[in-house]
């Protein structure tokens, strides 16, 4: 190994600390007190949010309103992308959403996956999976580096 290379175990622990800090950042966001949800960074460029849909999130036709789809898809894609960035907070600049199936209640998983970009702009996608394993929604987002240092955010801590 060249003398300037980072030993694999040091890099892995640094990534684990970054992932834990992102999970803490998610939990600290005031908006997330409205939702019973938990973020897990499952690896570089990957995230998972477990949450439950109930009647509090219904529209007048008794199914989950699109805002819950957008929020969880955006968050899953965002955190998948931000798992690759250790210095700056990313911002969502665009998000496309596809509703594939309504849901009334039950556990849902949002899976996020980074697709491309490593400098200024990142593209990531996410999908929502219901308790039966069926996809209920999908989205793709574009995210860019902000001027906000992750280390300046009180919720970003391992």
Q: What would your notes on this structure say?
A:
The N terminus is likely disordered. The longest helix has 21 residues. The chain is globular, with a radius of gyration of 16 Å. It has a 6-stranded antiparallel β-sheet with strand order 1-2-4-5-6-3. The chain has 2 helices and 6 strands. It is 24% helix and 40% strand. It has a single domain, classed as Thiol Ester Dehydrase, Chain A (Roll), CATH 3.10.129.10. The chain starts with 7 loop residues before the first helix and ends in a 9-residue tail after the last strand. It is of the alpha+beta class and 158 residues long.
Write the layout of secondary structure elements.
Layout: H1 8-28, E1 37-43, E2 46-53, H2 66-82, E3 88-99, E4 106-116, E5 121-130, E6 135-149
Antiparallel strand pairs: 1-2, 2-4, 3-6, 4-5, 5-6
């Amino acid at each position: 190994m060249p003398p300037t290379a980072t030993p694999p175990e040091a890099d892995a622990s640094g990534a684990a600390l970054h992932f834990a800090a992102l999970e803490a950042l998610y939990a600290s966001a005031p908006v997330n007190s409205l939702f019973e949800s938990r973020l897990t960074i499952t690896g570089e460029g990957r995230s998972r949010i477990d949450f439950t849909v109930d009647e509090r999130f219904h529209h007048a036709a008794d199914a989950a309103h699109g805002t819950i789809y957008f929020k969880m898809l955006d968050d899953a894609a965002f955190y998948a992308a931000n798992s690759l960035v250790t210095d700056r907070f990313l911002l969502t600049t665009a998000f496309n959403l596809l509703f594939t199936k309504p849901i009334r209640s039950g556990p849902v998983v949002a899976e996020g996956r980074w697709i491309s970009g490593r400098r200024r702009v990142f593209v990531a996608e996410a999908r929502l999976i219901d308790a039966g394993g069926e996809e209920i929604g999908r989205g793709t987002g574009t995210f860019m580096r902000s001027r906000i240092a992750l280390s300046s955010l009180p919720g970003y801590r391992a």
